[in-house]
């Protein structure tokens, strides 16, 4: 229905890109997209970041969220009526007790993948094949998390449950695929030095938990590596937070000046205190596969950005500039700090994490700059090696 953007094939080197089909004004929403599949990160869930098992909507009230992040159960938030969490709507799976934000999400999960993945009474049984798979993954992939084996499990379960299996296999195959060498690099990035042994262990556990003859290729060493690389390359980080929802709602309140200043000071202090206690881990976090968003190419001067303003997995792509019909829509895979660094540093991060060298206007303009990183950049170099980049750039 009159979409403002469409995916087009650019070249075999660049693959697809996303292009405006009409003029888009700065600040406009280009599209809102739901993922084909998504999943919360495993450590995130283990540490009690409570989210809907289907759409990742945060389940705690803003006050509970702040109390947990602060480690202080006595904290009281002003304007509790600005919290959007509706506990009366929450529902659990009657068999395995995972929680959903609504009956609709419980139903959607059941219809798409949960029948296959429901652990029933084995939820806490460490010998259940799915629990063994999750435990193995957690032991390989510590926070900050960028991916989840359960995203792949949900892909398999979706095909297993589907009447039209070919439709889903085709849906997953439209995500950007890499060559065998590139796949190895991506898996290496996610699993580190022991990646061959670890990948094989994961494949065996994955097979034990989920094997299906319709998908036999996904369970071969090559097919499993491809699936792994597909999720590693295309997974978009999702972040939700009832506290940030509450803050946005408070920002919009029409208050007398003195009250406004008091509230702003309270919120600033709250975030400072939380940072001391919980660091950067504020959100319920996971990742998902988005058909349109995954077609967006990177630019160091992006004209659009992704966010999750509805406190669930619905991704909003918003224009940062006026975009003309026919123009390519680009997002940045780097965070603000990384974008300010030299071309050499930016491309080092992009090559390591996304396997390409950027040729956006900013990089072309700086093409003659020296290929060495400046002194102060060298000092910061260590930090970006594991930088969670776009996967975690959730900008709730």
TrEMBL record:
Keyword Cytoplasm among UniProt keywords: yes
Name of one Pfam family that matches: SET
Tagged with keyword Glycoprotein: no
GO biological process: methylation; negative regulation of gene expression, epigenetic; regulation of cell differentiation
SUPFAM superfamilies assigned: SET domain
InterPro entries documented for this protein: SET_dom, SET_dom_sf, SMYD5_SET
Keywords carried by this UniProt record: Cytoplasm, Metal-binding, Methyltransferase, S-adenosyl-L-methionine, Transferase, Zinc, Zinc-finger
Subcellular localization, as worded in the UniProt entry: Cytoplasm
GO annotations of cellular component type: cytoplasm
EC number: 2.1.1.359, 2.1.1.372
Segments for region (Disordered): 369-396
Residue intervals of the SET domain: 5-334
Source organism, top-level taxon: Eukaryota
Annotated catalysed reactions: L-lysyl(36)-[histone H3] + 3 S-adenosyl-L-methionine = N(6),N(6),N(6)-trimethyl-L-lysyl(36)-[histone H3] + 3 S-adenosyl-L-homocysteine + 3 H(+); L-lysyl-[protein] + 3 S-adenosyl-L-methionine = N(6),N(6),N(6)-trimethyl-L-lysyl-[protein] + 3 S-adenosyl-L-homocysteine + 3 H(+); L-lysyl(20)-[histone H4] + 3 S-adenosyl-L-methionine = N(6),N(6),N(6)-trimethyl-L-lysyl(20)-[histone H4] + 3 S-adenosyl-L-homocysteine + 3 H(+)
Chief location category: cytoplasm
GO molecular function, one term: zinc ion binding
PANTHER family: HISTONE-LYSINE N-TRIMETHYLTRANSFERASE SMYD5, SET AND MYND DOMAIN-CONTAINING PROTEIN 5
Protein name per Swiss-Prot or TrEMBL: Protein-lysine N-trimethyltransferase SMYD5
Lineage summary: Eukaryota, Metazoa, Chordata, Craniata, Vertebrata
């Amino acid at each position: 229905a009159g979409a403002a953007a469409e995916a087009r094939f650019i070249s075999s080197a660049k693959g697809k890109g996303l292009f405006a089909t009409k003029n888009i004004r700065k600040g406009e929403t280009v599209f809102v997209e739901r993922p084909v599949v998504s999943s919360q990160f495993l450590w995130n869930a283990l540490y009690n970041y409570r989210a809907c098992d289907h759409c990742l909507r945060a389940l705690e009230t803003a006050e509970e969220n702040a109390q947990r992040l602060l480690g202080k159960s006595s904290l009281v938030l002003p304007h509790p009526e600005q919290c959007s969490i509706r506990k009366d709507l929450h529902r659990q799976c009657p068999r395995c007790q995972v929680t959903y934000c609504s009956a609709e999400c419980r139903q959607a999960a059941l219809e798409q993948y949960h029948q296959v993945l429901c652990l029933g009474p084995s939820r806490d049984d460490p010998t259940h094949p799915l629990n063994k798979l999750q435990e193995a993954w957690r032991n390989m992939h510590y926070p900050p998390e960028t991916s989840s084996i359960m995203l792949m499990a949900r892909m398999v379960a979706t095909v297993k449950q589907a009447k039209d299996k070919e439709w889903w296999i085709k849906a997953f195959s439209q995500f950007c695929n890499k060559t065998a060498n590139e796949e190895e690099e991506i898996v290496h990035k996610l699993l580190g030095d022991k990646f061959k042994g670890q990948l094989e262990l994961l494949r065996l556990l994955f097979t034990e938990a989920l094997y299906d003859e319709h998908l036999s290729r996904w369970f071969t060493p090559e097919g499993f590596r491809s699936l792994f690389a597909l999720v590693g390359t295309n997974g978009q980080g999702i972040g939700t937070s009832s506290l940030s929802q509450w803050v946005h709602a408070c920002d919009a309140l029409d208050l007398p000046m003195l009250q406004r200043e008091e509230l702003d000071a309270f919120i600033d202090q709250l975030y400072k205190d939380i940072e001391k206690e919980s660091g950067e881990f504020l959100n319920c976090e996971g990742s998902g596969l988005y058909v349109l968003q995954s077609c967006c190419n990177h630019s160091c001067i992006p004209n659009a950005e992704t966010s999750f303003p509805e406190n669930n997995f619905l991704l909003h792509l918003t224009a940062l500039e006026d975009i003309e019909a026919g123009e390519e829509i680009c997002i940045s895979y780097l965070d603000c700090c990384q974008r300010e660094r030299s071309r050499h540093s930016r491309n080092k991060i992009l090559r390591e994490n996304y396997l390409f060298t950027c040729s956006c206007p900013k990089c072309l303009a700086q093409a003659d700059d020296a290929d060495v990183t400046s002194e102060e950049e060298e000092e910061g170099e260590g930090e970006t090696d594991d930088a969670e980049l776009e996967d975690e750039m959730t900008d709730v």
